[in-house]
């Protein structure tokens, strides 16, 4: 984002994100790639917007999600949509692959970073092309990484053990969904910028599919909570 200073007339760039989205978790499975986010955008430390969809379909076989400044996410969606729209207008049967979108976003992020006006995002691009699964991460500096699983935000700290224990790249779609749900249960309990309403999307040989938001099941009636065991222990 860019602001014009009324005092000096100079053009100024933002120095920190304002409205931000939380973690993204993406996994490959035996028939494609699945991506999960929650639906919360925070205004500073306030959970301000609780029904925000942070997954976008870029083309028939590519989906995009990110953590970070939500206005930058919206701008990236516009830039990627321009590429898809231009390819359709040529009408020559040639369409960008998911990897093309990933490479473009890496170059765009690097360009913005070099102009000291970065996109404050951790970007995840997932796709399925020519029978191959594709999953990549592009960070705020334009660094590009392909992997079989990706976590951003606090999921990078809290969820890798869950993924390591319960996921493998040949699991089914339902198994991959369950792993992501378990990750967001942990995030909701341990990350103050997380929400218990999540959205899942996956892409396979039939194309991209974005599901409606769902609420993860959480448990708060532990005996320790109900009996106030910790308080009793400290007052003995």
From TrEMBL:
Transmembrane segments: none
Keywords: Cytoplasm, Nucleus, Proteasome
Subcellular location field: Cytoplasm; Nucleus
Assembly mode: The 26S proteasome consists of a 20S proteasome core and two 19S regulatory subunits. The 20S proteasome core is composed of 28 subunits that are arranged in four stacked rings, resulting in a barrel-shaped structure. The two end rings are each formed by seven alpha subunits, and the two central rings are each formed by seven beta subunits. The catalytic chamber with the active sites is on the inside of the barrel.
Entries under PANTHER family matching the protein: METALLOPROTEASE TLDD, PROTEASOME SUBUNIT BETA
Native organism: Paramecium tetraurelia
Listed name of the protein: Proteasome subunit beta
GO biological process, one term: proteasome-mediated ubiquitin-dependent protein catabolic process
Keyword Nucleus: yes
Role, per record: Non-catalytic component of the proteasome.
CDD domains registered for this protein in UniProt: proteasome_beta_type_4 (cd03760)
Family to which this protein belongs: Belongs to the peptidase T1B family.
Example of a GO cellular component annotation carried by this entry: nucleus
InterPro entries associated with the record: Ntn_hydrolases_N, Proteasome_beta4, Proteasome_bsu_CS, Proteasome_sua/b, Proteasome_suB-type
Coiled-coil ranges per UniProt: none
């Amino acid at each position: 984002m860019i602001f014009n200073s009324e005092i000096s007339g100079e053009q100024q760039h933002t120095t920190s994100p304002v409205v931000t989205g939380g973690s993204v978790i993406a996994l490959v499975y035996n028939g494609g790639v699945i991506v999960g986010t929650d639906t919360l955008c925070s205004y500073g430390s306030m959970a301000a917007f609780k029904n925000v969809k942070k997954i976008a379909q870029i083309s028939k076989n590519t989906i995009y999600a990110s953590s970070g400044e939500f206005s930058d996410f919206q701008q990236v969606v516009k830039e990627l949509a321009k590429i898809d729209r231009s390819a359709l207008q040529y009408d020559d049967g040639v369409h960008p692959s998911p990897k093309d979108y990933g490479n473009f976003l890496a170059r765009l992020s690097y360009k913005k970073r070099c102009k000291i006006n970065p996109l404050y995002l951790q970007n995840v691009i997932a796709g399925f092309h020519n029978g191959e699964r594709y999953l990549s991460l592009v960070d705020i500096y334009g660094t590009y990484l392909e992997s079989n699983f990706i976590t951003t935000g606090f999921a990078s700290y809290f969820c890798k053990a869950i993924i390591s224990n319960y996921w493998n790249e040949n699991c089914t779609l339902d198994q991959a969904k369950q792993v992501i749900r378990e990750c967001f249960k942990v995030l909701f309990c341990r990350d103050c910028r997380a929400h218990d309403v999540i959205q899942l999307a996956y892409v396979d040989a039939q194309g991209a599919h974005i599901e409606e938001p769902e609420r993860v099941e959480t448990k708060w009636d532990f005996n320790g909570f109900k009996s106030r065991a910790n308080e009793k222990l400290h007052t003995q």
